[in-house]
Amino acid sequence: MLWLIWQMWFFLILAFLIGLGLGWRLWSASGESGRALQAAKDEIGRLQRENDSLSSVAARHQAALEVSRITVKPEASASKSKTAKSPAKSDAVPDKAPTVKTEVNELTAIKGLGPKAAAALNADGITSFSQIARWTPADITRWDEKLTARGRIEREDWVGQAKSKLG
Predict the structure, then answer these.
(1) What is the pTM (predicted TM-score) of this model?
(2) 142 phi and psi, to 5 degrees?
(3) Which residues span the domain enclosing 43?
(4) What is the rounded CA–CA span in Å between residue 79 and residue 155?
(5) Which of 74, 80, 128 is CA-nearest to residue 105?
(6) Do 65 and 108 share a domain, yes or no?
(7) Opening angle at CA 75, ends 69 and 80, nearest 5
């Protein structure tokens, strides 16, 4: 057996070096994929936190909208009791609250403005291209932070696109 090792020492050392090289290559590759996997997990966590934040904001705005729809006007009940006492006023048309006609556009027509961002804008009262077209740099900064758009509003020129959609 010793004689066999003595005769093949070159091949044994060559096999050892090849194995060492392959092991090093595999070990270094797994480190890169491990870092890439961790980066992907971090991005998923960040996106989940962003989604939860947007969901909670949307839920609060939806609740506020529902509360505003449910509120009862005290003037209407007061006018009914007065009309019952005086027959001359019964023919009068009851006062209606002035309706505000708001323009509503499909905001997702703006390149880079997706459905989640459009929902967040709608929840805060931004429903038309004319509102976006009037944004100042301060508004752009505020909405960029609120939507966590990371500069996408300026980069994709939402204000310019909104102005072009108006005519």
Answers:
(1) 0.41
(2) -65, -45
(3) 16-72
(4) 55
(5) 128
(6) no
(7) 110
